[in-house]
Design a protein that fits this description.
This protein is of the alpha+beta class. It has 10 helices and 6 strands, in the order ααααααααβββββααβ. It has a 6-stranded antiparallel β-sheet with strand order 5-4-3-2-1-6, covered by helices on one side. The two termini are 18 Å apart.
Length: 298
């Protein structure tokens, strides 16, 4: 199973990174193969279908192991998955190159806006909200470069892009310079997105409660004074509810919500400490999921 986990994540992570580089928000693991198919096979025709099938098989196998449908893998099956995984990673590496070349042809204004957005996102996850436009580079330098969180080369690339935008506005940017800026800025964007994703993921793990009820697995996100409940995280159409968190730690009236509302709340929330699972909360979760509900330790 440990080997399976390694293979699974070694394919899933770069697949989601490829989608992020392309400009698609990272989908759930279950949705990733289909999004890869829609974007890179059907739409852009950059990737062969057989590689998406390799990823799909890995996702389905991992899910089967997780839910007990697959008890063990034979040595031959593991060897085949390792071999497929190696081929997949080599192909995905080339896919990154293809995507980057395609992005180099995009409009400079879009690249500028994208980098500005991820710089703002990176500053936001560090608690720096509503930074003025003329202070953006100064704040970025102060938060990430001066502190050593990111290499100095990042600042150089960001400044070069801003200058390239000015040159582009004056029609003074050469094709060679445009391609160079596209290449360097795309790398910075990708790494900044990954930084933000890692930071947000670590933050959300502190407020996430996983539960098992019957044969299903649910999830509760306690975002300050509001909690979001997903009844079945494996469902195609996820049912989401929300409730106010009372001062005693319990839940108020549970009402219908949506993934969109939850994602917006997640984006606005910055946890400062791990959620405390109090007795009142457990009692109220049993009302939601049933008395046989189990809380799963992370």
């Amino acid at each position: 199973e440990i080997g399976m986990e390694d293979v699974y994540y070694s394919m899933l992570t770069p697949s989601q990174a490829a989608l992020m580089l392309y400009g698609v928000a990272p989908p759930t693991p279950k949705e990733t193969p289909q999004v890869m198919m829609d974007v890179f096979v059907k739409k852009e025709k950059l990737l062969e279908e057989k590689f998406v099938k390799i990823l799909q098989h890995s996702v389905e196998t991992r899910k089967g192991i997780e839910h007990g449908d697959i008890k063990e893998l034979s040595g031959k099956e593991i060897d085949q998955m390792l071999d497929d995984g190696d081929k997949f990673l080599k192909r995905i590496k080339r896919l990154f190159t293809q995507i980057e070349k395609m992005r180099e042809k995009q409009d400079m204004a879009h690249l500028y806006d994208t980098l500005t957005m991820v710089v703002r996102d990176a500053l936001r996850v560090e608690g720096r909200e509503k930074v003025k436009e003329d202070k953006l580079l100064e704040e970025f330098d102060d938060e990430f470069i001066s502190t050593g969180k990111l290499p100095k080369a990042f600042m150089k690339t960001v400044r070069e892009l801003y200058k390239a935008k000015e040159d582009s506005d004056r029609n003074e940017l050469s094709k060679v310079d445009l391609e160079t800026v596209h290449r360097d800025a795309s790398q910075v964007i990708r790494q900044l997105i990954e930084y933000v994703q890692r930071k947000r993921s670590r933050e959300l793990e502190r407020v996430r409660i996983r539960v098992r009820h019957g044969t299903k697995h649910g999830e509760v996100l306690v975002l300050g004074e509001q909690a979001f409940i997903i009844y079945d995280i494996d469902a195609e159409q996820k049912e989401v509810s929300a409730a106010k968190v009372r001062k005693d730690g319990g839940l108020g009236k549970v009402e219908q919500s949506s993934l969109e509302d939850m994602e917006k709340a997640m984006g606005d929330f910055h946890p400062t400490q791990r959620v405390s699972i109090r007795n009142k909360l457990i009692e109220d979760l049993k009302k939601v999921f049933g008395e046989e509900m189990e809380i799963l330790l992370n």
